[in-house]
Specification:
By secondary structure, the chain is α+β, with helices and mostly antiparallel strands. It has 4 helices and 7 strands; from the N terminus they run ββββββαβααα.
Length: 148
């Protein structure tokens, strides 16, 4: 299934306690090629500080009028640059966005996410975000360039 990405708002949060840098949060919406709302995403990272990594919270399920958060599931991907840049599925409950379960849906553990029938869809959406949201695309390129 192919997806269309619509970038949303971007926000800079308070200064980081460990390094004094800012954390940026990007929001966006995901639709199927047929125009059906399918997911929302939040990307958080500290610009210019690749050592902090980044997180992508992806809430997949029905959106729009009358849709219930209980029908949605939240996947979280952590981006790190070790030997090479990459993503790892992590526990959604450990992210700053865990308090938004009333909107994002069930916060899946790593094990639940990896066993989910929507896992491949989540990775496909993650790819679409990287390809279509230029704000994220530029960040991923910066992270890749800073890798050892």
């Amino acid at each position: 299934m192919a997806f269309t990405i619509e970038p949303g708002e971007a926000t800079d949060l308070q200064l980081c306690q460990c390094c004094g840098g800012r954390t940026r949060v990007l929001r966006g919406f995901v639709s199927t090629r047929e125009g059906v709302a399918r997911a929302v995403y939040l990307v958080s990272w500290a610009p210019g500080r690749p050592q902090h990594g980044a997180r992508v919270s992806l809430s997949i399920g029905p959106w729009g009028r009358g849709a219930s958060a209980s029908a949605r599931a939240c996947f979280v991907f952590e981006h790190r640059v070790d030997e090479r840049p990459g993503f790892m599925v992590t526990d959604a409950g450990s992210t700053p966005f865990a308090s938004h379960r009333g909107l994002l849906g069930r916060m899946m553990t790593r094990e639940e996410a990896l066993a989910s029938p929507e896992k491949q869809e989540a990775f496909d959406i993650l790819d679409a975000i990287g390809e279509q949201d230029e704000r994220v695309n530029g960040w991923w390129l910066d992270m890749a360039r800073s890798s050892p």
